[in-house]
Design a protein that fits this description.
It is a single chain. By secondary structure, the protein is of the alpha/beta class. It has a single domain, classed as Rossmann fold (3-Layer(aba) Sandwich). It contains 12 helices and 10 strands. The protein has an 8-stranded mixed β-sheet with strand order 5-4-3-6-7-9-8-10, sandwiched between helices. Helix 3 packs antiparallel against helix 7. The relative contact order is 0.14. The structure holds S-adenosylmethionine (SAM). S-adenosylmethionine binds next to strand 1 and helix 8. The site of S-adenosylmethionine has 20 residues, from strand 1 and helix 8.
Length: 289
């Protein structure tokens, strides 16, 4: 019932705020984010996106046939205030738990979220992307579907890396999957002096872990680079991490796209753009987490 109420409220607000969105919000919002904001507002895909999404989605139903294992292990997102480091200051991951192969068909970016990511990177002209959290490679496919992009993606689960490789190979060979924990892989990339113009942080959704990885990837980023955070309304704790990012002077712009929060690296005048000005804000997904 609550969900129905939200959808009605959403529809009403969408109609009432149409003028505000078009004539005020979009006029202030930097052009590079228009595609992403319009997707949230209008919920429509272009013909090209529809074709691409159905091509990418075809892989999902094939996942069970790719593994003979009964279960596939992955690192879960921990509860708030459980973040720990080892003696060297490296982050410890969340619990490593097994789930049926069928359950893994449903994990990873949906079409809507994939197209949202695609519009964010395409809008910003991003070419080199680092992803924390590969899973079965769906977000990776959407990134790689933008012409000219290269992706380095980190995943702790070897079984998921294998599936992700098969998935992403269909779209492009311009990817490197690092089967390591996030902090281990970041160390390797720092030694290699790698550099990126976008990082997507999509694993270990907990405030302190999120802030930790945000700090760790900064030396890998070019000026003006994007840090895209997934699930900024996942828990109160994750939302607090996002609010800290909004206040952080390291970022000249922050954009609240509900399902993703985007930070632009730079020390220019600070600006914050929030879809909540035009649409009802989503409720926090996991209460008391
Ligand atoms: C939410 S999923 C990523 C979804 C994917 N980006 C997509 O949208 O299709 C998060 C993934 O991160 C991995 N992960 C979580 N914490 C990790 C860590 N500390 N090191 C390495 N992998 C980790 C998990 O095993 C899981 O597969």
């Amino acid at each position: 019932m609550k969900k129905v109420g939200f959808y009605v409220d959403n529809l009403v607000k969408r109609v009432l705020n149409y003028g505000k969105f078009k004539n005020s919000f979009l006029k202030r919002l930097p052009q590079q984010f228009h595609g992403a904001a319009k997707l949230l507002y209008y919920h429509t895909f272009t013909e090209e996106e529809k074709k691409l999404a159905s091509e990418i989605e075809r892989f999902r139903s094939q996942i069970p046939a790719l593994s003979t294992a009964k279960e596939i292990y992955s690192y879960t997102s921990p509860h708030s205030n459980t973040f720990k480091t080892d003696e060297e200051g490296k982050a410890l991951p969340g619990e490593y738990t097994g789930n049926s192969v069928e359950a893994h068909m449903k994990t990873g970016s949906s079409t809507f979220h994939g197209i949202l990511l695609r519009r964010i990177v395409a809008g910003a002209g991003v070419k080199r992307i680092l992803e924390l959290g590969t899973n079965t490679g769906f977000s990776g496919c959407y990134f790689l579907s933008v012409p000219g992009t290269e992706l380095v993606t980190i995943e702790g689960s070897a079984a998921l890396c294998e599936i992700a490789k098969l998935n992403m190979d269909r779209i492009s060979d311009k990817h490197r999957i690092m089967n390591m924990l996030f902090d281990e892989a970041i160390d390797v990339l720092l030694k290699e002096k790698a550099s990126f113009d976008c990082v997507f942080i999509d694993g270990q959704h907990e405030q302190k872990a999120t802030l930790h990885y945000t700090q760790r990837v900064l030396p890998l980023l070019k000026p003006g680079a994007l840090i895209v955070h997934d699930d900024i309304y996942w828990s109160e704790d994750m939302h607090q991490a996002w609010q800290k990012m909004v206040q952080d002077p390291t970022f000249s712009q922050t954009v609240d796209l509900f399902y993703k929060g985007v930070c632009v690296l730079g020390d220019g005048p600070k600006a914050h753009y929030d879809m909540g000005e035009c649409l009802p804000r989503p409720e926090v997904f996991r209460k008391n987490w």
